[in-house]
Amino acid sequence: MLKLGVLLSGRGTNLQAIVDAIEAGRLNAKICTVISNVAGVHGLERAREAGILHKVIDHRAYPDRQAFEEALLKVLRREQVEYVVLAGFMRILTPFFLEAFSMRIINIHPSLLPAFPGIDAQAAAFRYGVRISGCTVHFVDQSCDGGPIIAQVAVPVLSDDSEETLAARILAAEHQLLPQVLQWIAEGRVRIENAFQSEKQRPRVLISPS
To answer: Are residues 116 and 95 located together in one domain of the fold?
Structure first.
């Protein structure tokens, strides 16, 4: 069973997708803890309703980023978390944290990376006029949304789409993709190749067949 820690800052819809997949038997995992850097968000209520240990660690209460991340790591280690899932966590993690969970931090991003990294990716894709958008699950490294890609789902941009309708369909795709990737990891099917070699040779993720 895969032991997960989820970091979030908002509504927690991807947390709910993970919870639902576990309850449905589609994901062999346990969410050991949910941590938010923002108090009062709906993601914490989702954790409470699911009976998951949850905690607020407000980054503003710490003198610097490392002190904040030390507080995060203390909880994650205490709960014996194996993989960290960023589910709408609106903080950039430093190398200090990344090294503690090297290639064991998973993020979901609402675009087909490497296109449209960073915030407001759905709106950026819509304004650019792309015909296909989507979402990406990737390992987190020190780059901005540039870690090794695990899986992607394409979402067509319809002729009558608005930014809001496109974003909603991308989010629905996220809710399917993220639990699926976590199940592949739980099954030991995900492997990183060239993870620690030179920058000239980008790491890539291999997924073995079931």
So the answer is: no
pTM: 0.93
On whether both 92 and 144 belong to a single domain, the answer is: no
Q: Tell me what pLDDT residue 103 has.
A: 94
| Co-location of 115 and 157 in the same domain | yes
Instruction: Specify whether 84 is located in the same domain as 131.
Output: no
For 6-34, letters b (16+ CB in 10 Å) and e give: bbbbbbbbbbbbbbebbeeeebebebbbb
pLDDT tens-place string over residues 96-132: 999 999 999 999 999 999 999 998 999 999 999 999 9
How far apart are the C-alpha atoms of 38 and 151, rounded to whole Å? Answer: 29
Please state, in angstroms and as integers, the Cα–Cα distance from residue 10 to each residue in 5, 156, 206, following that order: 16, 26, 31
* 93 among annotated binding-site residues: yes
Q: What is the CATH number of the domain that holds 15?
A: 3.40.50.170
Binding residue per annotation — 107?
yes
13 is in an annotated binding site: yes
List the domain range (segments joined by +) for residue 181. Answer: 108-210
Is-cis flag, bond preceding 95, omega within 30? no
When divided into structural domains, the chain yields a total of 2
Q: Do 120 and 28 fall within a single domain?
A: no
Determine the residue type at 6: V
- Which tokens hold the place of 105? 């931090």
Catalytic residues: 109
- DSSP 8-state symbol, 2: E
Residue 28 annotated as binding? no
